[in-house]
Amino acid sequence: MYSGITKIDYRKTAGHIFTKPVQTEGITKKFTETGCLCKQKSNGRSLTAEDNVERVRASFLHSPNLSKGTAANELSMTKTILWRVLIRRLV
User: Fold this and answer.
1) What are phi and psi of 64, to 5 degrees?
2) 33 lies in a domain?
3) Which residue, among 79, 74, 85, 83, has the nearest Cα to 47 in the 3D structure?
4) What is the pTM of this model?
5) Which residues contact 73 (CB under 8 A, 6 or more apart)?
């Protein structure tokens, strides 16, 4: 049916996966430092800079009825970032 070809024939060996020296150096360094090749926890999304938070705070203290779109244009940031600062950092 499959003319003798098995799944083992399709698997890659470790020699074929890491062919560039840079890849093998990074893997070797990671293994010697941590003793494991496991994926480490990622940092996640970065926080909004403190100077942006202060700019938003000052803008809305000066004119509290300012719309999000107008404030975002005045502060040169997106509405999403402005909204995130208002909801998560200033409330």
Assistant:
1) -70, -20
2) no
3) 85
4) 0.51
5) none
Number of domains in the chain: 1
3-class SS of residue 14: helix
Which residues contact residue 71 at a Cβ distance below 8 angstroms, ignoring those fewer than 6 apart?
56, 59, 60, 82
Structure confidence by residue, pLDDT tens digits, 34-89: 888 787 777 777 778 899 999 999 999 999 999 999 999 999 999 999 999 999 88
**Which domain does 76 fall in, by range?**
50-89
- Asked whether residue 76 is assigned to any structural domain, the reply reads yes
Would you call 30 exposed, middle or buried from its count of C-beta atoms within 10 A (0-12, 13-18, 19+)?
A: middle
Instruction: State phi, psi for 70 to the nearest 5 degrees.
Output: -65, -45
CA angle at 55 for the pair 51 and 61, rounded to the nearest 5°: 140
Residue position matching structure tokens 């470790």: 14
Q: Extract the tokens encoding 90.
A: 């200033």
Q: Six-digit token pair at 18? A: 């890491």
Task: Answer yes or no: is 35 within a domain.
Answer: no
